[in-house]
Amino acid sequence: MIRSTIESSGSYLPERIVTNDELALKIDTSDEWIVQRSGIRQRHVAADGEFTSHLATRAADRALARAGMAAADIDLIVLATATPDQTFPATATKVQANLGMTRGAAFDVQAVCSGFVYALSVADSMIKCGMAGTALVIGAETFSRILDWNDRGTCVLFGDGAGAVVLKAAQGNGTSADRGILAHTLHSDGRHHDLLYVDGGPSTTGTAGFLRMQGREVFKHAVANLASVVAETMGQAGLGPENLDWLIPHQANQRIIDATGRKLGLSADKVVGTVDRHANTSAASLPLALDAAVSDGRIRRDQLLLLEAMGGGLTWGASLVRW
Ligand code: UT7
Predict the structure, then answer these.
(1) Which of 98, 162, 213, 304 is the most buried (most CB within 10 A)?
(2) All domains of the chain, ordered by start, with CATH?
(3) Is 173 considered catalytic here?
């Protein structure tokens, strides 16, 4: 059977780092509150004129270089973002042009913080049904542009960044010992749309709008949904959480990450964390965390990884991968 193997990863973070203390100079907050409630110590913020497509292109370039591949080798780009450069065309097409890729297909996927898992699932499905032999899957965001910098309940939580992976079609035996993507689970429940949304858009206000969140409610849903989607996804492959080498959780809040790990019975040293350095980068959070653990040598060939995320919609999902 055809599997999609993940050949490589790459990531990019804007140069500018904003610490909690710097935010506390402008709004009524403190490093102590932010660290205690979220685990976040700093975030990266894109420079003026630095767009989601720029971050995405840099991450994609790095992933391609690591895979020893050129843009011309890629059949498909699926880019997950909730902060596109423009309403249309898809930011993925800008990345395609930036990379010098003149064939294939490129489009965006919108599932907010779950976007990378959704994009990975779409690209994997297209590879499995023979529509593409290779794909770039990217998560890229400039959430700093949709934050209300006077709302201390949200502006301290998010950051900018991008991560990418290169997928390639490979033959597998159809067992959980195969390298590549073994299973996906995607969920959404639109009844909770108002818990996390942007109060603007082309069809409503005609403005880009700002992020609004009922943090405590989102927190409750996250803790309940994430552990169950991990177990559900592992079950599809006939495995349990005890088989995991690494849990790569969406980096929204250290308390959510810890609670999910505890529910699954995983020790903290099996859980990848970057929320302290990156804050919540929405669709970029998973490929950024994955790339951090690949780059520092923690993730090794043939290890079993589970990526999970939850975000606005509400949406949530997970992907099981043998690296
Ligand atoms: O990626 C998508 C998924 N998103 C998430 O997973 C986010 C989920 N939610 C969370 O991470 C947490 O709910 C937050 C970190 C957003 C908030 O933590 P919390 O423990 O739920 O705090 P809270 O919202 O209940 O606020 C507690 C207090 C409030 O004051 P009062 O009403 O108790 O006097 C807030 O006004 O903390 C106050 N507060 C702040 N204080 C200092 C809220 N934001 C801040 C702040 N600095 N930045």
Answers:
(1) 162
(2) 2-171 (3.40.47.10), 180-322 (3.40.47.10)
(3) no
Question: Half-sphere exposure of residue 109, counting CA atoms within 13 Å on the CB side?
Answer: 25
The residue whose C-alpha atom lies closest to atom 25 belonging to ligand 1 is: 216
Q: For residue range 238-264, what is the model confidence (pLDDT) as tens digits?
A: 999 999 999 999 999 999 999 999 999
Instruction: Provide the whole-model pTM.
Output: 0.98
- Cα of 153 from ligand 1 centre, angstroms: 5
CA distance 112 to 153: 18
Residue 113 known to be catalytic:
yes
16-19 vs 42-45, strand pairing mode: antiparallel
Tally the C-alpha atoms within 13 A of residue 215's C-alpha that lie toward its C-beta: 14
* pLDDT band per the 50, 70, 90 thresholds, residue 311: very high
Write the residue with the smallest CA distance to atom 47 of ligand 1. 29
Residue 278 Cα distances to 16, 195, 284, 294, angstroms: 11, 23, 10, 16
DSSP code, position 172: -
Tens of pLDDT, residues 163-217: 999 999 999 999 999 999 999 999 999 999 999 999 999 999 999 999 999 999 9
For 49, list phi and psi in degrees, rounded to 5.
Answer: 80, 0
